[in-house]
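Input sequence (552 aa), recorded before submission:
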Amino acid sequence: MLLKDDTKQLRTILKSLPDSPGVYLYSDENGEVIYVGKAKSLKKRVAQYFNKDISGKTKVLVSKIVSVRTIVVNNEADALLLENNLIKQYLPRYNVMLKDDKTYPWICIKNELFPRVVKTRKKINDGSEYFGPYPSVRMLNTLMDTIEKLYKLRSCNLKLTRENIKKGKYSVCLKNHIGKCAGPCAGLQSEEDYNQSLKNVRKIINGDISSIMKELEHSMYEHADKLEFEQAQVYKEKIDILRNYQSKSMVAANKDLNVDVFTVTSDKSTVYINYMRVVEGALIYANTFEVKKVLDESEDEVLTLMIPQIREQSDSNSKEIIMQFQPSIQLDGIKYTVPKGGDKKNLLDLSERNLKYYLLEQEKRKSLVDPERHTKRIMQTMMTDLRMNVEPRKIECFDNSNIQGTDAVSAMVCFIDGKPAKKEYRHYNIKTVEGPNDFASMEEVVYRRYKRVLDEGLDMPQLIVIDGGKGQVSSALKSLEKLDLRNKVTVIGIAERLEGIFFPGDEIPLYLNKNSETLKVIQQIRDEAHRFGITHHRNKRSKSMLGKKSDK
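Predicted structure, token format:
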């Protein structure tokens, strides 16, 4: 159906939409599908796009919509699966997409006589079987090494044919002589025997270790009963190889655990999804996916859409999915679990740790490739979070130290572009305050610091951080007012107990997200000031004690 500019006709078209679950497709003036969505009620969901209260990104999408097509299904789960298929078919520009994983390697069982098992980074439609992709090359190499030790598969590039094998046109190579290939090219191994090995290889790749282990143990005991101990030893060594591989991949004590694990987090532009596939308690696949937001989608919306795609990509048929929360739409026949303890909670924690490490690694890479861009982003974030008008390129932090009122000292540390500038660090011995008066000490050192900055024409910081709450911040402000600097620099305090950020005049502190980069920078400079001050205080106290001993 076509959407016209005429408001009356638009309302008529929207009212004619079915109040049923289904999928809607938006097309532009060229007839190209630009967005595919799912809905519990097509009438209500499509109408939401044409309300006044929509985001700027959604307005851009709506401005390009010329026609709407709908497909009615039985329920939301069916709508989710249909949406997934249509997105893969049309690749709409306004839908979220999984980041291309073409750089990751795969395991390939070639489409040929006596198929080879090889590693590849190219997945092509040649009739071969592909397993993966494997983000961890170490995991892939461990798996390939295990397969090579267990089964004598060929690795040569010979284009074998049954006719040429019968004619004896091929001869065995060195691998056959050293016992790493059974010589199918020379007719020394039957197709049936070779294909049985490949069948077991597929089981290992898919994590089905227990059935192979039972077969090997049965063969071992059978040979032992016949007093064929050399043959029994061969099977025992294979069992040991398989157990070694299994021990490297085990992540749960429960060997009957077959689950998929999903965790998710996001920033302003991207949703990050970590996925782990666990078969018989062993981790056989793990990856972190990046999904760029297009229309400010929520974590739940993106994850709900991506679960079918990711499971299909990894060939998962697990009947249970472990998650941080219950998704808005659940697939039929799948149990969704939000664990509170035990093996399943450990798996969820492991996935969350992998997600955290992935984000840290991405940040490190960005900072190495383009350090100024990385710094600029952090500075912009801090400026927004701390209600500043300029980026806090230079930050100075003050911390007082004393023990039972003796040897009171203060420390000032400086961060430039979010990193320590140790040449700018300063120690202060408290001169005008007697006894343990933290407020008066803070007032003294802040005055001394910025009086000197003004006298010597030094650069002022854009942000001053005070280690303490409202009292310490008020004391610092008194000194800045005396120097006529009160409104020329941003001053905040950080309370160590709950990590609340105090602003002058605000009774209620600001609590930033524990993963906030702004909070991490403030915590880092506060901790550095504390360390620097404690070191100076210890040195001063040691000298004081030595002086007293020498007097005696």
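Checked by second reader. Residues 548-552 have pLDDT under 50 and may be disordered.
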